Amino acid sequence: MSEPWNCLPLPLADDVAASWASVFPEGLPDWLLDDASVSEEVIAQAVARSLFLRQTLERHPEQVCALLQSRVLSEPTTPDYLQARWGESLADVTDEPSLHAALRRFRRETQFRIIWRDLLRWADLEETMAATSAFAEVCIQGALDWLHEAACEQYGTPWGKDPVSGEEVPQSLVVIGMGKLGGRELNVSSDIDLIFAFPGKGETRGSGRSLDNQQFFIRLGQRLIQALDQITADGFVFRVDMRLRPYGQSGALALSFAALETYYQDQGRDWERYAMVKSRVVAGDMKAGQVLMESLRPFVYRRYIDFSAFESLRSMKAMIGREVRRQGLENNIKLGSGGIREIEFVVQAFQLIRGGRDRELQQRELLIILKELEVLELLPPQVINELREAYVFLRNLEHVLQGMEDKQTQLLPENDLARARIALIMGFDDWHSCQQELARHRENVATHFANIIASEEDDSSAQSSLDEGWCELWLAEVDEASDTQWLEKHGYEDPAASLRLLRSLRDSRTVQTMQTQGRKRLNQFMPVLLEALTEVDKPSETLSRVLQLVEAILRRTAYMVLLLENPGARAQLVSLCSESPWIARQLAETPLLLDELLNAESLYSPPARDELQDDLRQQMLRISYDDLENQMESLRHFKKAHTLRVAASELKGTLPLMKVSDYLTWIAEVVLDHVVDVAFANLVARHGYPGQAEGVSRGTDFAIIGYGKLGGIELGYTSDLDLVFIHTADPALATDGDKPIDNAVFYTRLGQRIVHILNAQTPSGQLYEVDMRLRPSGNSGLLVSTLQAFEKYQRNDAWTWEHQALARARGVAGSTEAISAFETVRHNILCQSRDKDKLRHEVVEMREKMRSTLGTPESKQEETFHIKHDAGGIVDMEFMVQYLMLAWCELHPELTQWSDNIRQMEELGRAGVLPVSDAEKLREAYIALRSSIHRRALQNLNSQVAGGAFVDERVYIRSVWQKVMAV
Questions:
Q1: Is 293 inside a domain boundary?
Q2: Could you give the 3-state DSSP secondary structure of residue 812?
Q3: CA dist., res. 415 & res. 158, Å (int)
Q4: What CATH number is attached to the domain comprising 57?
Q5: PII-uridylyltransferase/Glutamine-synthetase adenylyltransferase domain location, by residue (predicted)?
Q6: Which has the closest alpha carbon to 704: 790, 838, 810?
Q7: Cα–Cα distance between 156 and 198 in angstroms, integer?
Q8: How far apart are CA 683 and CA 694, in angstroms?
Q9: Do strands 192-198 and 174-178 pair parallel, antiparallel, or not at all (unpaired)?
Q10: Is 658 in the same domain as 639?
Q11: Sign of the C-alpha dihedral, residues 533, 536, 537, 541?
Q12: pLDDT tens digits, residue range 222-281?
């Protein structure tokens, strides 16, 4: 008899032959062949197709045996079967660890059945998705049932009003499944997106100490997540993602129905409408859950045909493109061009736009919605068929990629063995044939995606009216004298220099070695760019700046296509580079920022703080906290993109100085908040939560205090961050995880991780430069202090200059409770009684030291004025304000409410400490000097100006200094 693997193509036959002896050293066991649908040939096919199936047979034969005895593999995996099988698993559950173990054994067994049937093509796509989704629901419900009962024994049963009858009844958690789980379209190796809700307010009954309903359900939700997500010796069940809940990672883990309704009504974003399209109650109180879902329906589906959704859909399209370019995802069959996400996006776009009127579209399964789109004649039958075929092909391929190793991935592999497996499973003779079919489907999807969600500029042609002279110039088809004359005629102020730059680019090795397609795009783009430069004042100077970007994208010519197809973005590029070499450099260093130029309205209208937070949350939703590299890259892009929008707005004049600093500060605050969340989550996953005193609820108990420009809400484009870290936990307690450490060690590591995320140099550069020297005892002090230690240091050991710095300090990220506690300490320290003469002497002495080391030497003061450090400059004003704050807060405690110089000046005037006229004039002078620094930063210039600049302001500032600070 021939070996069962002889029918397999190389290299799979060799792979199976080599592994056969290790998996079945004594031949196939009888129990494996008792299933009539299983034979040696079938088993050879299975182990050839999946390392996961092979390893499970080798390492856990007893589980496979039990699986076959419960139901043969030729039978489909139904919800009833899964429920019954889980019921049998419950027999071994006596406590929480045994629940975890039972869930993980149940997963291994069920995954084996689902992946076997899928990869051997015994099940079609719809069965695989339905079985995986049903399996998730059984796990969630099974774990929830056990944990709810255990929680009620510990805390009592939660009671509250029934959402329908209004009567007092026991309450249960409602688990809402989002995304593919909500749509019953789960992958064979997927995470699950959940939202936790409960009917209403109330307290637990039946225990010695009652607990608020929300706290009960938050604790229950935490235990449910651990039961499913925590990695143990038996593995895990599902990765659980809770970031789609209201307020994302910073929001409460469980919210009442009323709180959910209020959030979506008042603050719900377009992307949350998009996410809620597939939402469905998957576990818990199903009846109450349906009441909740009905109440949220108006948020998702408008009563009218919602054409206003097109703009937000275009923004989502742009976001998809940015993500693909940022992460290099073209080989990702979900996120890349023509991938699964684009099909989902097309279908859900129709649901958002027309679902309010056409209720047939208010369903969740994509394939069902495609049928409805055909019935409603919203898309031609050919488009529907091509999208359906592509979806089935891509989802089957996705399951192949994941089922081979039970690994969550959508990336096509690079190695030949994995490619051979894919071709075999997908029914192709070789990888090349499979790849051709994949390319056909992706091309169809990309075409329909572009046609349906078209942007306004997509149909424009960049070269339709281009004068041929620009092409001849770039390609050097005429003599140099004619080229010079052409540039001069079109306004280039230094044509000879421009020609030298163009010649240098053309002759560069990078251009000479470009592929044919890339060279073609460059030859299309350069003439268009050269013509666009005629719209600015100094085309030659601007060309030298823009060419930095061109050189940066020579190997990534998709950006040239972006600029060719979007004349608006091209115009913004030329305009901004003309006005600011700093912006030109930012774009050259991070070409992905070109995406920000696509929408002029948003480019010159940076978002407010809550919108910034929402934007960051949306961008980070699909990046695991464990994936620190991607987290860091995405944060850097977020910061650069929004800083560009602020700079563009300042140049255009749509943002005054005060707002510029506000926005730059908000960007930093939002980033810091997220960095704290990421770093804290990483440490909690390893060591558990910091220990708490009895009766104290879990929290980070950690705060970042911003000093200097961050604390004073005065950040500039290149400012570093002066930070101090504090925590309010008991350092003597330990964390509650499997690898406990002292709280003090936990928070030190938290601080170290935060500094690393901010400071580290990645391919996208540094997020922020961090200065920690203002912490107690400076560089020799602890990285993270308890609040008590911080207060003791400030009272007993701090220098006067440290109290000056405290005047500009405020909590910027972390626990609201810890920040509030810090603000109380700050207020008390600033309001201490002080000897005004001694204080004045110390402040003046410190100012003189700074001026002598950082200011302009006396011999050059007629030629140069340093806006910050010279007499009559910004630091003089800051020192005056800080002195007055420290001297008068005892009598006027209201002075401590602000940390920024402008409002401190205004408050000093209102309190009568400083004449109102002086306060107003100082404020105007301060704004004028800071405005100059901002403008010069955008020109890559330092803070030194001509000696004759700001004469009136300097004279006035020095006169006030003499009145206030004369010793």
A1: no
A2: strand
A3: 55
A4: 1.10.4050
A5: 314-452, 861-935
A6: 810
A7: 16
A8: 22
A9: antiparallel
A10: yes
A11: negative
A12: 999 999 998 888 899 999 999 899 988 778 999 999 999 999 988 887 778 888 999 999
